[in-house]
Specification:
The complex is a heterodimer. Chain A is an alpha+beta fold. Chain A contains 16 helices and 32 strands. The chains are: A alpha+beta, B alpha+beta.
Chain lengths: ~750, ~170
Amino acid sequence: MSRVQTSDTATKGPRIGESALRPDGIPKVKGEFVFSNDLRHSDMLWGGTLRSPHPAARIVSINTAPALKMTGVHAVLTSEDLDGMPLYGLEHPDQPVLADGFVRYQGEPIAIVAADHPENARIALEAIDVEYELIKPLSDPKLAQEAEAIHPDGNLFREIDLIYGNSQEEEGEIIVEGTYEVGMQDQAPLGTESGMAIPSEDGGIDLFVSTQWLHADRDQVAACLNLPTEKVRLTLAGVGGAFGAREDISLHIHLCLLAMKTGKPIKMSYSRTESFHGHVHRHPAQMWYRHHAKPDGTLTRIEAQLLLDGGAYASTSSAVLANATCFAAGPYRVPSVEIHGAVVRTNNPPCGAMRGFGCVQVCFAHEAQMDKLAIELGMDPVELRLRNALQPGDKIITGQTITGTAPVAEVIETCAQHPTSVGSASQQMELPGGAGRTADPKNIVRGEAIAVGFKNLMFSEGFDDFSTASCQLLDGVATITCACAEVGQGFVTLAQQIVREILGVEEVILEPASTANVGSAGSTSASRQTWMSGGAVKSACEEVRIRLLSRIAESYNLDVESLVIVDGGIASLSSDFSISLKEATAEPIEVEDTYRHMPTFPLNEKGQGDAHVSFAFSAHRAVVDVDQELGLVKVVELITSQDVGRVLNPLQLQGQLEGGAAQGLGLAVLEEINVVDGRILNPSFTDYLLPTALDMPPVEIAALIEQPEPNAPFGAKGVGEPPAISSTAAVASAVRNATGLDLQRVPIRPTDIVFPERGENG
Amino acid sequence: MTSEVYTLTVNGNDYQVVDGHSSESLLWVLRERLELSGSKNACEEGECGSCTVLLDGEIVCSCLVLAASAVGREITTIEGLGSEDEISDVQKAFVDAGAVQCGFCTPGLLVAIDQLLNSNPDPDDLTVREAISGNLCRCTGYGRILEAVRIASNNRTAQNEEEKSK
């Protein structure tokens, strides 16, 4: 291993609430930061993966002999070479490490090779002869439950019938109904899947990989290699973004299998096309809703049916459905709710975690319904939302009482009232179509709309959710060991802020995130690391502080209550005693702590229960220009307010709000993996459109609502996901407002605007 | 097919490329043969700009340039920005403005922005957006990146005026 970072050292720096700068910022701007696909080893081989070109087929035979004979090829492995657990999966192991007899989605791995050069690996993959017997793919999720099972575990991943309150109809109520659809979005982190596995002398393996959850990977890898977990050591390699795409296993097991087989370090790095096939996506959703309200706008009942397409394997589908169902009504008080949710198996690409995790899809639908209801009632859409906004003490539709903060009205009001700062487009470039100069200004219409969303923080439904961190204080320097995956979000910055805040030290060293030296930190997902790993670092530091002050009090015969940490030293308030932290910690103090949030409980057979820990709310207001003739949309402004509990780092917070809004904008008008008969038509950045700097408007932060969340470390809520939830709904609603069209689907395609009468096949 | 030995001039230094395949891209040779891995590979089809380098001062996607065709030309990569001891003004602005999250797009963006500000020290917002529209960023939504360009541009303008008034 020539260049693996071992630690990051902070310069003197700011504490909680300040805009501390990233400790990895300078290596990143110099191009010196080592991402997982920058790893190299003088003796390494390159791994490659043979993937199924078919979404559904029986494998009749695989002939690897021609590939094995080729120059530079060291190993070719298929399912026959596995001697550990042949299946893996984050919640339920149902996905083959290498296809055994059947392929169930286009891109499913069948064989892996190791060669001296990636080109030789590629040529060897082409030489593997696979005979397929094609099967008609099950590509329509609506048919999945009636169709013949395409997997021994069946075609239904999970079904939830949520029933809340009484269902009697009231006199004179207003009813609106709608059917909504969300396409398949890709996380598209810029760094593709990559890593390196190195066989170790103890017969085990060291894997350096970009991931969101080292310990969950470790457990799955160990089972599939038939090794004890202590012989499988995972270390985080530099992560080029994640957004959910790295919560599942991708190349991890393949890398290790090849390294064990060849006895050499193996490097793999997916191409962009392979990446589109090689990780899970956001679930496409089909949703039917019926809202009932009194003439004054008070919601009386919501009915909904949700169908998520889970694709070929389970991944986190079960938890995504729980979220979609629990948050289906939006952040509103509703006395009566009936929701049927299902997530099914098809021969489409597997779906799992992506930022927002089930809440994005339903937010688009429930906000469209609220707009529809406002029109039907002749009521201002902001007023309608305020009238029904959840408050602390209210119950959500699972019957769970909100015991923490819930500033729903505050996010709506501040977002709605914030002045717009954009005028009309002054240059052709600023109109829809931009540099294409296609827009005729007389066809351009402007629209504006607001949307509100919410989501659970941390893992739900009784999951034993925890994070472990240790803090060592020696010679006035703190060293933190925590396996929290830094994926770009800035936990490394926050961890240093927390340590400085509590221990008063300036220098904070962060050990590499690894399974080798500390317990699990849980996943970098579900907006949970600030709370969970932040909580673990905080409590470890607090215990170090207590022990340090007790030791000094004892050694110098002082009252411990009189001791304070100030200016890099310990001083007594009742005498003139003082000692530097360096001197006071010549003998080290080390504490490891495991932090857990309050317990949650499973949903019962009616979808009821205290399943969640805490909730975060956000609102977005979008201003759009639409070219009605060409169907092109330009989002000209996004305004947002968010419930954050407490701001811990204003600069990083702003980055989360802007970046999340960009992903939401992408889902509203640009981003979709087009899947036809189980095949991805656009697995490239040429055809899968990500927002560029010309597509993304300024994001105005109207308000950060700071109401400290009880039980949350520092009172802070996770902030990563809400920005990606209400933004999509706001943009879609603004396009509806501009055009007067129904637009029941995102992403909104040009044909949806130009030929609305053609419906979904437009 | 293995090519003859050839020489590339990167950031002012000459590098011999031995045993290269003639089909290798400049990005591949920079990263894997010269071990200059600051230039990133995110799409390898010229869409994302992560591999942006300068060829004789012009922006190119190094994934689309054959390495052997860059012989005799001046190649500038992220490793050539700033000096040994000090990062450049644009690099510093990126850190200070929060323009870096995962950092994968950062090297390519910095090369593109450095070139922009060298040719136009005071670009307006739309010019900056246009100039970096070939560089995809998935983390930031571009807000802090645009702010970093504003900071660097304002500093350069202030410096120029100071020098003029001397």
